Amino acid sequence: MASDSEGKTFDRETLLDLVVNAIPLGIILFFILAFALINPFGSNPVNTAIQFSIMAVTGAALLVLTYVSGKAISEAEDELEEKGLELSEEAGAGEVAEPESEPTPETTDGDDEPAA
Amino acid sequence: MVGEQLALTALMGVFLVAVAGFLARMEDWRSYTPLAGGSAIGDAGYGGHAEKPAGIVRWFTTVDHKDIGILYGIYALIAFFWGGAAVLLMRAELAAPGFDIMQAQFYNSLLTSHGITMLFLFGTPIIAAFSNYFIPLLIGADDMAFPRINAIAFWLLPPGAILIWAGFFTAPLGLGIDPAQTSWTMYTPLSAEQANPGVDLMLLGLHLTGVSATMGAINFIATIFTERGDEVNWANLDIFSWTILTQSALILFAFPLLGSALIMLLLDRNFSTAFFAVEGGSPILWQHLFWFFGHPEVYILVLPPMGLVSWILPKFSGRKLFGFKFVVYSTLAIGVLSFGVWAHHMFSTGIDPRIRASFMAVSLAIAIPSAVKTFNWITTMWNGNLRLTAPMLFCIGFISNFVIGGITGVFLAAIPVDLVLHDTYYVVGHFHYIVMGMIAFAGMGALYYWFPIVTGRMYQRRLAKMHFWLSMIGTNITFFAMLVLGYLGMPRRYATYQFDGAIAPLAQVTTLHQIATVGAFIIGFAQLIWAWNMVQSWYEGPELDDADPWNLKDDGMFGREFQWFETQKLAADGGESEEVRADGGEVETDGGEATGRVSSDPRSDGGYRKAVRRVDDE
Amino acid sequence: MAIEEADDHSGEDHGHHLPAVEDWPKGFGEASWWPFITAIGAAGFYIGASLYVIATQTDLLGIAVGPAVFVASAFLFLAGLYGWVYHAFVAAYWEGDGHGRGLRFAMVLFLGSEVATFGAGFIYYFFVRTGAWENLPELVESGNVLSSLVIVNTIILVISSVTLHYAHIALHKNDRQKFIRLLAATLLLGVVFIGGQALEYYEFIVHEGFTITEGAYGSAFYGLTGLHGLHVSLGAVLLGVVFVRALYGQYDAEHDTSVSTVSMYWHFVDAVWIFLVVVLYAGAIVLG
Ligand code: HEM
Ligand SMILES: [Cu+2]
Fold first, then answer.
1. What are the residue ranges spanned by the domains of chain B?
2. A58 lies in which domain range?
3. Could B355 and A91 be called an inter-chain contact, meaning their C-beta atoms sit closer than 8 Å?
4. Does the distance separating the beta carbons of B64 and C121 come in below 8 Å?
5. Which parts of B435-584 fold into alpha helices (H)?
6. pLDDT in tens, B328-369
7. Which of B45, B177, B484, B552 could form a disulfide with B557 if both were Cys (CB 3.0 to 4.6 A apart)?
8. B418 lines ligand 1 (CB under 6 A)
9. Is A40 within a domain?
10. pLDDT score, position C103
């Protein structure tokens, strides 16, 4: 539960889920490096500081939020498992069956007028 | 003159009071309320325990999140029609290059009112309608954390709308109070110097609606954090609640900042302060403050619709949302990043090129979480068992429109492209693909999806599909024409386009404007169909025969809100009237927790009056 | 007062709170007029302001109409607020502490929104401080904005935070006497602070001729101190309410929700003031 050690909280699954936020972080990092290397507009202490802090601060905020939410969600999952509850959003309806077979790839028009 | 006007106004006031009094006394007022009257749930629930006041008083005194959700919805739809009427007039004017049916001043007023109305009086409230009604049901709460703050927040909105629209009511009286012509961005110095108390009224009204939105946001965050049922935690919180949580966090920081900026503008206008004057904070400061609010605002508006689609789309795809956690984390990522991109609206203002470049970087980064969601929706449908109901059609249209709206946004985020396209119709096309193509579409989809819960009846499906197709076609005609207009160089916010052929080719521009006008009227017509469908079906639509109108149980997709609905129906149909509070209230015995579980009542396997066939019965 | 009567409805409570039971209109467990009244009162402030603006820009109305509506709305608003707070929270008070967590959390969120409210003003100030920093009023040129009055006032406000903190601790130790005394001291210090601010405004406007129209700095000064002053005044009102309720013996170590929310608010306002003194008073004259 909440007392889980770090290593367990961020298991493979969770880390895989968090990859989604690593991409924007990577893009921001890319630009930080690019702007550090290629600098056609020259430097000015104030503006250069603002330039980098916009990217750094947003990136850091994203990192922190991703960490916090990842931790909260993963701990909550452990808690649910302990209670033996359903993980899905529809949960609570433990008795609702999962669809068993692969759904057939067919498109039905389920929205016809009711017959009078 | 003035005396006459005053007398007339007083007379109108008396008349309105009389009408209100008459309506309040009408015996069967209650039959107009949802879930009442002939609906499947209705009669039995009213036993000796009707705990809500009768008549119109019920609506003024309600603190029930479901009633407040309905109030928000009605409010938002009134605003939708106001804003829609304004834009149809504008499109009519733009059907030909000259000033044909109105002067520039009136066009500017309509432009301003359309933008402000759609974003602040339709967009935010329609989302609040869904979140009020359904968040407590989805998370297994009795109600909002602060039901009364919820009611206060709603009742601040009507006076806000009256102030925002005031200029239109007073202008015909010739009192010197005209509608504002500032555009929705209210850029200084124009907005600081426009001598017209109508502008002040609009600013005050906006501040009031901002207070309301902030109160609502605090309430939602507190509700989602502290009121969840026992079996709901962060791991199985539904996606709509996640988006509302993120949206509320954005509101919490964005709206108060706008509020302060509005007050500063009011002080500049009325007390000669220097907040946005050249010798003070400078007009650019307004743009910074406005867009520091404004960009989060666009995500405030679009995240919950994304949540709605993420919730509804799987129901008709027969499978769970693909990569649920990706959607959650990317929602949070959008929330954070949206505070670091505001100056992409100011690329052409001459701000420092280094600073500009970093806003481009973050703007490009924010496109990723948006795209991730798109792929998740598409993958959810992939190989799914699609059922093209009206809500589903709106969800699919939403995705399709987001592809265009989102990609045009990424183009605009690139500085060199933006410098060419800024302030052209391209920008108008971009964000309308999003605000109309996504926000309104998701709203419509959710309205259809939940119509059975709110009214206990089913809408007319054929009309709903007509509504969808006309909206979809109209939206794409109108806004694609605008994208092209932008490429041709047509500047936005003009009442006329009788310009020099060197700016843009007049013949093509005229044709495209006419196409856009036709598209706009198609959209308008579609909404009339929809309005008729809603009203007619609310009164006379076929009653539901069970609590699963979408056959969600077959796929194991019977969500919490429908589970709650089922317990309500069982209680009502089974005659256990003492368990049901006033129409649609909670089941008292086991309160909110009941919502999390399909009732084990033996009657759940049938025993209803068969009134209509279920959707998919053939 | 009906505090003791609200007892028999706690049965079905499971951490959630049902709306108060003996509300107006009576007998409707789920309905209340108070939110509507509160909202109309609040909207009345805006309508009053609108009428004032209309009166200044046209000759349709007397100039006093707006302020009159404003004041009338204040009464409506306060009545609504009283009814709402009383029935929503106080009436069900002794049933348990179900509200506490949510209310404290809501206060934290509200303070978060306050950061944004003040933020806009401070951003303006930093904009002028780094940009159009010229045509400064005499007060700034001479360094007299940072007067001994401000310093004394700051010390007073800081002390009031300390007394409030210890009042809360005394409450936790169920030392009622000390709690009430320290609370009274806090309230007194708060009122003295507001008086000091009023005195400063008087000095500046009447004797120094430094007004809100006095260029970029004047806007920042009156905008920020005014906004802060409004917050302190609201804080004093809240402290007053807490004080009265304390006299009625409505608090003890377990029942202290509003004491802790109000003290969070008060500490926040205090912190803003310190920041404000540093950047707006001291920051204006150092490196001038
Ligand atoms: C994929 C992510 C997005 C990017 C990269 C993006 C980028 C941009 C840029 C750069 C502009 C400024 C164009 C100009 O004025 O020159 C813009 C305008 C705008 N965008 Fe987006 N956008 C995105 C998504 C959205 C969303 C989701 C919404 C709405 C819910 C939205 C609403 C708007 C609005 C309303 C404007 C126009 C504001 C105005 O000037 O009146 N955008 N967008
Ligand atoms: Cu933006």
1. 2-31, 405-543, 552-617
2. 12-91
3. no
4. no
5. 441-455, 461-488, 506-540, 560-573
6. 999 999 999 999 999 999 999 988 899 999 999 999 999 999
7. B552
8. yes
9. yes
10. 85
